Structures are given as C-alpha cells and as structure tokens.
C-alpha cells in the first residue's frame, strides 16, 4: 500500500513536472542564440523553376525575396567545395563519374532538363546557366541571405573547408548545416560549434521518443534547426486526435527557439497544412508558387 502511494506520487510528480516544463521550457532551457528566421525556403534554389543548385536558380529565388536558400555540397578532386546534390554525375550531367573524381575545371555542365526529385513526373527545363557553382560563388553573390547547407559526403576535408568559407565570409550567423546522418552532424558541430546544426534523422527519432515519454523537457539539445520531411508528419495531421500532440510538439520546439522547417512541399494544400501546424518555414521547389500563396494568405515574411 505504502509502496503504491510512493510510486503513484512519484509518477504524478514526474508527469506534472514534465507537463509544466513542456509548457514553460525556458525554466530549464536557456533560449537558443537568436538567429535568422526563415519562412520561405528555396530547395536547391527552387528546383522546379530553374535547374537545381545553379547560380541562376539562387538569383531567381533571392530576387523573389526568399528567406533562405537550401543547397548541397561536395568536394572535387582538387578540393574545391562545389554546390551540387548527387555524388555521381549521371543523373544531372549524363556522365558516369563521381564529383570527387574530377577537378573543378573538369566538371561537365548540367543537362538541359532535370527531373524534380520531390515532384512526380516533373521536369525542369533550364536556360543558359548549366554550370555547377562553387560555394564561394554563392557566398560572394548573396552575402546577406541565410543558407542551409547539406553536407553530402562524410569527408573531413569537406566539413573543414565549408567551415573555413563560412568563417571567411562572416556567415556563422547566416548558416545552418548538417545531414540526415548523425555522424556528419557531430563532426560539423565539433569542427565549428558557432554554426547552428540541423537535427539528424536518428536525433529526430530520439526527439520524438523523448517527447512521447515526457522526458524531452529535461534533455539539453545542441541543435537549433529541425527539418521534418514530407509526408510523414503531414499525413498524421489528417487524424485530428494526433493534431494537437503534433502541434504541441512543434510549439514546444518553437518556444526554445528551434526552427521547424517542413520539406519538400510543392502544392498549396501542403503549404497550408504546414503553416497551420506551426512550422517556422516551408521548403519548396517552387518559390514563386510559395510566395504567391504567402502573399495571398497574409503570411508575413520573416523579420
Ligand atoms: C575527401 O575528399 C578528398 C577530395 O575528393 C579526397 O582526396 C579524400 O580522400 C576524401 N577523404 C575521405 C576520408 O574520403
Ligand atoms: C552572431 O550573433 C551573436 C549574437 O547576436 C553575436 O554575439 C556574434 O558576434 C555574431 N557573430 C557574427 C560573426 O556576426
Ligand atoms: C547525408 O550524407 C550521406 C552520405 O554520408 C548522403 O548519402 C545523404 O544524401 C546525405 N543526406 C542529406 C539529407 O544531406
């Protein structure tokens, strides 16, 4: 009897504390360093409107007023950091070779027409610009635009070089980097803890586990940015009983200054759901469509 009361009161205490901390996270967590806030994020520069990861795509998105560019990095044989998605050049250039096997000067141009990965049966026809850019070119051209950098290979030199460029261009406050692999994210954080990191996939799952067991409010977290892939969390929203929990989860993250981005959304229905869920921002291949949607719905741009 006595033991039962003890267990019951302990459990009740735990549940109440957890609930309280979930409501008021700042009791235990210091607010994370304020950084940029992005609502409108152009995936690979807007892969549905221009050839992905080209200067033309980035320029189009920035001219449109995007809050953030998302891009991917690789290292060439001569150790240049280039902006491109795939390890192998077959899909984008029609050449069966890895980026790491060629010098920057040897890299072939993109094909005229590329499939849009997150949009079924959709191809994007490009214009003149078919060049794989250097990360440095992007930093030179857009010194004030926040950039989300996906580190595509687990290569220490790549991580080091990206960090050096970020520091050189004074962009530590305008950058978030990472990968779905936690190994890479750990290396990034170790290389330069001043640059905010993304949650890797294992860490997202861990985060969800902590949330559902009520442990989340007690655990310190180094990450600042959470990117939730489509469609898993969105489809959960169909079920209203889950909605409140998801919303509370996102609200809690938001409260401790995590930024929650949902990717990659390419139609208005999904934009709507994401913003209703409380997402900080939406990543899209169609920046013009997202901008028109936000304008029409009075969703303000980031401050
Ligand atoms: C990292 O990339 C460079 C250039 O492509 C290469 O020489 C080096 O072997 C790579 N390192 C690892 C550990 O893969
Ligand atoms: C980044 O922002 C922090 C906090 O606002 C500031 O202390 C720091 O100097 C900034 N760093 C750079 C490189 O601008
Ligand atoms: C993470 O890195 C792996 C290689 O280690 C790569 O295959 C994968 O595409 C990367 N994922 C993202 C989201 O950048």
From TrEMBL:
Domain GP-PDE: 38-294
Keywords in alphabetical order: Hydrolase, Lipid metabolism, Membrane, Transmembrane, Transmembrane helix
GO molecular function, one term: phosphatidylcholine lysophospholipase activity
Location(s) in or outside the cell: Membrane
Pfam family membership, one: GDPD
A single cellular component GO annotation: endoplasmic reticulum membrane
Principal subcellular localization: membrane
InterPro entries registered for this protein in UniProt: GDPD-Related, GP_PDE_dom, PLC-like_Pdiesterase_TIM-brl
Domain of life: Eukaryota
Bilayer-spanning residue ranges: 6-24
Reaction(s) catalysed by this chain's protein: N-(5Z,8Z,11Z,14Z-eicosatetraenoyl)-1-(9Z-octadecenoyl)-sn-glycero-3-phosphoethanolamine + H2O = N-(5Z,8Z,11Z,14Z-eicosatetraenoyl)-ethanolamine + 1-(9Z-octadecenoyl)-sn-glycero-3-phosphate + H(+); 1-O-(1Z-octadecenyl)-sn-glycero-3-phospho-N-hexadecanoyl-ethanolamine + H2O = 1-O-(1Z-octadecenyl)-sn-glycero-3-phosphate + N-hexadecanoylethanolamine + H(+); N,1-di-(9Z-octadecenoyl)-sn-glycero-3-phosphoethanolamine + H2O = N-(9Z-octadecenoyl) ethanolamine + 1-(9Z-octadecenoyl)-sn-glycero-3-phosphate + H(+); 1-O-hexadecyl-sn-glycero-3-phosphocholine + H2O = 1-O-hexadecyl-sn-glycero-3-phosphate + choline + H(+)
GO-annotated biological processes: glycerophospholipid catabolic process; N-acylethanolamine metabolic process
Family to which this protein belongs: Belongs to the glycerophosphoryl diester phosphodiesterase family.
Name of protein: Glycerophosphodiester phosphodiesterase domain containing 1
Species, as recorded: Nothobranchius furzeri
Lineage: Eukaryota, Metazoa, Chordata, Craniata, Vertebrata
